[in-house]
Amino acid sequence: MEVVRIGRFPRAAGWVAAFxxxxxxxxxxxxxxxxxxxxxxxxxxTNETRVxxxxxxxxxxxxSGDSAGEGRLIVEFxxxxxxxxxxxxxxxxxxxxMLAAGGGEAEAVLSFARxxxxxxxxxxxxxTPGEKTRLVIDVATADxxxxxxxxxxxxxxxxxxxxxxxxPTPAATTLPPIPEAPAPRASLPVIVVDAGHGGAxxxxxxxxxxxxxxxxxxxxxxxxxxxxKGGRYRVVLTRTGDTRLHVEERLKMAREISPDLFISIxxxxxxxxxxxxxxxxTLSDEGTKRSTSEALSQGxxxxxxxxxxxxxxDLRPILLDLAQxxxxxxxxxxxxxxxxxxxxxxxxxxxxxxxxxxKVLLSPDVAAVLLELAFISNxxxxxxxxxxxxREKTMTAVAKAIDGYFDARTPVQHASNAGEGTH
Length: 423
Description:
Layout: H1 15-21, E1 34-45, E2 48-55, E3 60-66, E4 72-78, E5 80-81, E6 87-89, E7 94-102, E8 105-112, E9 116-124, E10 133-141, H2 144-150, H3 158-166, E11 190-195, H4 212-230, E12 234-237, H5 247-257, E13 261-268, E14 278-283, H6 285-297, E15 302-303, E16 306-307, H7 316-342, E17 348-356, E18 368-375, H8 379-385, H9 388-408, E19 417-418
């Protein structure tokens, strides 16, 4: 296996250039310098192990690896303060780790006791002052071939790939940078508010006969009114009356308008009528893969402001995957803010942030969430859904989350709970 190592972290303006300069790994959330507090290992099952880096704040990191011994994962950090030469024992799949630092960069080398593949990695941001930020890496039992396949693709000659990825095209402009905050837009951010169901598709029905299509439209109109009064955004509603839109039409609108944020509003339902509370869905890993597959099969090569149609065929899915990861990070960030603002305003499920393979969220370059307002099948939630006072305070909380999202625009990746989607 050829190893492409990172000499210095890139300072490219666009995410494509940044990615190609980092061809040996993933570039993730960036921030100011932080300290490494601890490295912890946990055996989550007989076939899976987790390693957690406890940090005093978020940092930019990249993951690569090589096949030495049973295999090694290499995590490189930018702006991380640590004591060089520090090492320790691991657990489960990991034999141990060693730390090195220099030139404002740091590296952690994780040696396998038995070969595994990279299963997942994400940042869990601190939610309260003094709480640690955590970088989590999960691995699962696999052979060397699967381990190598789980790492980012490598190229023997990066010069040609970088040139191809960054060459100007008729539709190309500089993309929102990762990890730096994006350049200011000349126009107002565009928010698409999607009222679920409609027309011949009523959605779920409550005990008193309340129809989901009506409460989602009322909530969407309320949110649009609040946002328009604030004057910070251009708001687009997928429907303003009792009309039916297929999921494909909603998705097409999200792609053609090129919004900065897409919010689909629904009301949940369950046979257990005691269940109540809202929840927020973002796209699952399965959905991310399906989005890339559908985009390629349909010849949809427009990602942000870049048309990758003329790029090498083996490069297209990589760029689409990168766009999806970028979008997934921003969707997770907004989901966190949404939950924080809704907490205490309306009942929420315990596992509030969930992921699912929801087609309405499949756009690879639009941050998107599906908001389940409440369980329409629960009598108390149904009463809330039909209450103008509840609707106003709940949509005001959603609007505050939107303001917070655009005030910060700091991409992070969220550790979310898997859930089932019905829409």
